[in-house]
Specification:
13% of the residues lie in helices and 37% in strands. With 252 residues, it is mainly beta. Strands 1, 2, 3, 4, 5, 6, 10, 11, 12, 13 and 14 form an 11-stranded mixed β-sheet that branches. A 3-stranded antiparallel β-sheet has the order 8-7-9.
Length: 252
């Protein structure tokens, strides 16, 4: 698999991660990961942060130990600005919002995290801001059985000629913390889960033409290491990933 490189210097690599590929090796999965694809060319490569398997978009890799530590500190100090785009179920009421709700583990499924009632384990601070870009209606994929109402008749030959229409919202999202599945958990918490999410929004309406998690890491803004001095911050740089074609078709 060929991964598009969005930015590269002697310390840092910014890639355009496709949906469907793991970042780290997984004992249960033998598929190649982002780390596998780059470690041969860059033996000291390190993962500065992670994206979920089904999330696409810009991702940072460090080419050496110093660069890795430099980036990790920025993430820990919340100095790095990240912007995501997502399509969620329903029409989000407010044009802007902040979700400030700690995240813990789900008591029913070890794969899931949870905000709100029923959460177990350690609660970790999680803050997500969002802005509505567009509210729209779209026909839904036929394999999502819950996409049943409302229905609009477009022919006369039975159910095959029904188009299932559902409301969706296109969001720009700014996570202020970096918890596992944070955006997916927080959108689920406010009853507007990310569409096509088999873990947090299973068997629910998914816009026709979209067959992957509707979450994309659009941009990331961070400080570059300052030349040979390394421990000092250099200029601020912003890297952007083009929106997936399937997003553009759905939200046209």
């Amino acid at each position: 698999m060929k991964i598009k490189i969005l930015y590269e210097d002697s310390n840092i690599l910014a890639i355009d991660k496709p949906s469907g590929i793991l970042v780290h090796p997984d004992q249960k999965n033998k598929d190649k990961t982002i780390l596998d694809l780059f470690v041969k060319k860059y033996p000291k490569v390190g993962i500065a942060h992670r994206l979920d398997r089904e999330t696409s978009g810009v991702m940072l890799l460090a080419k050496n130990t110093k660069a890795h530590e430099f980036l990790k500190k920025q993430f820990m100090d919340r100095e790095i600005k990240k912007t995501y785009y997502a399509i969620v179920s329903g029409w989000v009421k407010n044009d802007r919002g902040i979700i400030n709700k700690p995240i813990g583990r789900s008591p029913k499924d070890f794969r899931r995290h949870l905000a709100g009632r029923g959460v177990r384990g350690e609660l970790r601070e999680a803050i997500t801001e969002y802005k509505v870009l567009k509210r729209f209606k779209a026909s839904c994929a036929q394999n999502f059985s819950s996409c049943a109402l409302p229905r609009v008749r477009v022919g006369t030959l039975g159910d095959k000629n029904f188009v299932h229409i559902q409301p969706f919202t296109y969001l720009e999202i700014y996570p202020k913390t970096g918890r596992t599945h944070q955006i997916r958990v927080h959108m689920k918490f406010i009853n507007h889960p990310v569409v096509c999410d088999s873990l947090y929004n299973p068997n629910k309406p998914c816009p026709k033409g979209l067959n992957r998690l509707a979450l994309h890491a659009k941009s990331i803004e961070f400080n570059l290491p300052a030349g040979r001095q390394g421990n000092l911050k250099g200029k601020i740089i912003k890297i952007e990933s083009p929106l997936p074609k399937e997003f553009l078709k759905v939200v046209k």
